[in-house]
Amino acid sequence: MAALLRSTGDSQLVARFQRRCGLYPAPPEAPQEPRPGPGHPRGANGQGGRSGDFPQPSVQKYTQKYIVKNYFYYYLFKISAAMGEEIFYITFLPFTYWNFDPFVSRRLIIIWVVLMYIGQISKDILKWPRPSSPPVVKLEKRLANEFGMPSTHAMAATSISFTFLLSSMNRYEYPFVLGLMLAILFSTMVSLSRIYSGMHTVLDVIGGILISGLFIAVTYPAWNLIDHLESASLLFPICILVVPFFLCYNYPVSDCYTPTRADTTTVLAAGAGGTIGFWISPFFKLVSEPTESAIQSLPLLTTKTLVLGLTRFMVGIVFVFLVRQLMQNLSLQVLYSWFKVVTRNKEARQRLEIEVPYKFVTYSSVGICATVFVPMLHQFLGLL
C-alpha cells in the first residue's frame, strides 16, 4: 500500500501523462550576458533567468514555456479544467436555480459548499506539495503556491455531477444509465485535466474523488432532513451567517499568501447567502417545492424555452454582477476607512481583517440576490 501511494503521488507519473498527451517543457534558453546599469533584464526573455545568474526576487513572476504537440488534448483539457473552476459553478448553479429546478439546485449548492470547505481546509492542514516542476509542466501559475492534496476540482466535479444525478432521478424521467455515464464522464474529464495541467498528482485526484464519494454516500440518507432544517428555527439565518464567517476568519494560516482563504470565503459566503435565500423564498412563493406526484418528464427543449432560459440567465447574471460590484466597492471603502488603509493599496486586500469581511459581505449578498431578488425581477418582467 505504501508503494502504491508513493507511485501515485510521484511527479514523474504526472510528467509521463503530459508527454503521452503531447505536452512538453520547452528547451532551456542559454543565459545572456548582463547589461550594465539598474533595471537590466533578468534573463533572455526579460522575465527571469536561471538561478545564480542574477539576484532573484522573493516572488518570481515567471511563466514556464512549453511545447504542445497535440492540440486536441490541449484544448480538451483546457475546457475540462474551466468546468472545474469556481466561476463555472457560480454561474452554473444559479442557472439551474432559475431555469431547471430550485429543489435540485438547493441540494447542489449545499453539498458543493460543504465539500469545497472540506477540500480547501484539508490542503492547508495536510500541506502536501503540488507536483514538482521540472519534470512537470505547470499551466496555471495562480495556484502554484497552494498545496495539492486533495484536488478540489475533482471534489467539485464529483459532488456536482453525482448530486445532480441523485437529486433528479426521483423527480424526472430519464435513463438512469445515461445520467450515470454523463456524471462519470464529467468528473473524469475534470479530474484528468488537473493532471494534464500539472497542478495535481494522481493521488491528489483520487483523494478528492474518494472524499466526495464517501461524503455523498454517508449524507445521502439525510438529504431530505437537511432540506427541512431551513424552516426549523427563526435563528437559522443567523447561524448560517455566523458559522461560515467564523470558519473563514479562523482559516489555517499559511507561511506565504495564497488565494485559498479568499476562494474558501467566496464559496462559503455565496453558499450562506444562497441558503438564506432558500429560507426567504417560500414567503414570496418564488420556488417550486417537491411534490408527491409521479415522476415528471423532462421538458422539451424548444426554441421558445431556450430563448426564455437564456434571457432569464442573462438578466439574472447582469443583475448579480452589478450587485457584486456595488457590495465589493462599498465594503472595501468601509474597511479601508475603518483600518485607515490607502485605497489604492492592493496588497491591503490580502490582510485577514479586510479580505474575509469584504469577500463575505460581497458574496453573501450575491447569494441572496441570486435566490431572492433575481426571481423577483424575473417575476416582474414576466419571465417565469
Give structural notes.
The protein is built from 13 helices and 4 strands. It is mainly α. It has 2 domains: 11-20 and 62-130 and 143-229, no CATH class; 233-287 and 299-384, no CATH class. The strands form 2 sheets. Strands 1-2 form a two-stranded antiparallel sheet. It has a two-stranded parallel ribbon with strand order 3-4. The protein is globular. The chain starts with a helix and ends with a helix.
Q: How would you summarize this macromolecular structure in one to three sentences?
A:
This protein has 384 residues and is mainly alpha-helical. 61% of the residues lie in helices and 3% in strands. It folds into 2 domains: 11-20 and 62-130 and 143-229, no CATH class; 233-287 and 299-384, no CATH class.
Secondary structure layout plus pairing:
Layout: H1 2-8, H2 11-20, E1 23-25, E2 66-68, H3 71-82, H4 86-99, H5 102-126, H6 152-168, E3 172-173, H7 176-196, H8 202-219, H9 223-229, H10 236-249, H11 260-284, E4 296-297, H12 303-338, H13 352-380
Parallel strand pairs: 3-4
Antiparallel strand pairs: 1-2
Helix pairs in contact: 3-7, 4-5, 4-12, 5-6, 5-11, 6-7, 6-8, 10-11, 10-13, 11-13, 12-13
**How many DSSP H or I helices?**
13
Sheet bearing the most strands, described? 2 strands, antiparallel
Form type: globular
- Strand % is under 5%
Cα-atom radius of gyration: 23 Å
- The total strand number stands at 4
Give the uncertain stretches in residue-range form. Answer: 39-62
The main sheet orders its strands as: 1-2
Structurally, how many domains make up the residues?
A: 2
Backbone structural class = mainly alpha
* Overall helicity: 55-70%
Distance between the termini: 55 Å
Order of helices and strands: HHEEHHHHEHHHHHEHH
Mean pLDDT value: 80
